[in-house]
Predict the 3D structure of the following.
Amino acid sequence: MISVEEHLATILAAVRPAEPVRLPLSDCVGLVLCEEIRSLVDLPGFDNSAMDGYAVRSADVEGADPAVPGSAVTLPVVGEVAAGGVATMPVALGQAVRIMTGAMMPEGADAIIRVEDTDGGTETVEIRAGAAIGTSVRPAGEDVRIGTVVLEAGSVIDARRVALLAATGHGDVLVLPRPRVAVVSTGAELVAPGQPLAPGQIHDSNSHMLEAALTECGAVTTHRLTIGDEGSEVIRVVEELAGQVDAIITSGGVSMGAYDVVKEALRDSGTVDFVQVRMQPGKPQGFGTVGERRVPLFALPGNPVSSYVSFEVFARPALRTMMGLRPAGRPSQKARLTHQLDSPVGRTQVARAVAVRDDAGWHADPVWGQASHFVADLSRANALLIVPADVTHLAAGDEVEMWLLDGDRARLTAWPADAEAEGAGGAVGAAGSSRGLTHVRADGSAHMVDISAKDVTAREASAAGRVLLSPQAVTALRSGGVPKGDALAVARIAGIQAVKRTPELIPLAHPIAVHGVSVDVDVADDAVQIRATVRTADRTGIEMEALTAVTVAALALIDMVKAVDRHARITDVRVVAKSGGRSGDWSES
Ligand code: AMP
Ligand code: MG
């Protein structure tokens, strides 16, 4: 058996960066630039306006000041220039030219007056604010001078660098190309996902996983094949592909079974070696080169987790090397284990884990299913834990090396689940955000304060708020003309209903006996005023109930009037009075 490091070293010694090619910008994201890039233009290319407004001579508008009545200056508008156009008229003393953002400064003008500081006129313009020379003018070459180096060879191209390349005039650049890779799944039991399974058959997940993993690492899958367990087929396919691609990855058929077809077929090639690596999962590995072009071939084990881990540990670094990138592409961190982890004697374990970061650093929770067929737990994981061969046991709290599979962030999920993940142990863990919160314990667990020892007292709380409305909506409310019906009645009832739901909505609010609720709505000229009063006899306050009543009444009102007023706005929701309980009586005014 050989170590992980030895096998990886053999692989990295056999691969080298490809020949650079010139590619259009749209194909370059993630690729390494192979030439120094100089700007072909000045940026900005010419003096231009930073605002929609008027190009003027600063001296003409010197006295204009919005704070000084009668100080406005009126100038004739002698022309207009939009982005992409050229001003035909120079701006002479006492003249203005209407100008749009990005448009070339007309000759003679030395400042821009924003349209907001004018009456927007087209024949003449009243200018209400002055501007020093150069105001809202973007001078030519301010950002980049023609001929200066903007990117060095070796830069990895990303969206921001694409912006720079495009702006400086480069439509294509010399880069190290994406490796073109063929993926071959082997196994007579394999059926394409989406197809029905006969007894004993399984869906081919590896070829799809490998294609996805190749895309993630910047390579491209040119062929994805599923073949059976015939040695002759393996040889034929590999020979054919070797002339067409930059690398071949096979899965399955490399262990000790009776149908380890890849191993049997390629062992005699003399150029692919099959080895046992001191690693779990992923012990059986094949690697070598095939064909005249000596194309690297990775023969990965068939179990889905073994296949994935083998790709990460061996194929990905090799492909990155071919792309001119640092082989170890995963951010490596130290993490503390949340649970113990046992590891086989003499094997580097690559365990899958869910990693979470808080103020104390990264924590790694090994997934339950560590055997090499657990695809669901593989999919849950966002990290690989690297347990050295000589370590057989790690206790909870021990430090472990970790590779983050999704970068430094919480795992990508679609909004709004993402927002939830952030709060519930994503980028900011629950324990980390708990500092100083009375309802969160030191270990991060949340709890409701125990109120059983408090006295039962009569309590009352009032809250108020407003929904700002357009005059049309107010008229509709007053005349009963809201198309959906009696908006005010619906708002009142919604407020009362909401009081009874408060503990379901507000995580740490206690369920308490609500003895009375009133919700009043009052139509003013520009708003509906909402006021709710809630009464109880219980051990804790009822302010949250009052606030919930006002908020939900306001939401219900918005829902009722939205056909009449799309801009209705809730504002000023607050507690205005409370009585009873230890903190005594209080009111806003
Ligand atoms: P093998 O190395 O070919 O003996 O495969 C080991 C295990 O992985 C067997 O249970 C196979 O059925 C399974 N396996 C092999 N290839 C694939 C694949 N492409 N997708 C899913 N499972 C596979
Ligand atoms: Mg097989």
In short: The first helix runs from residue 4 to 14. The radius of gyration is 35 Å. Residues 416-436 have pLDDT under 50 and may be disordered.
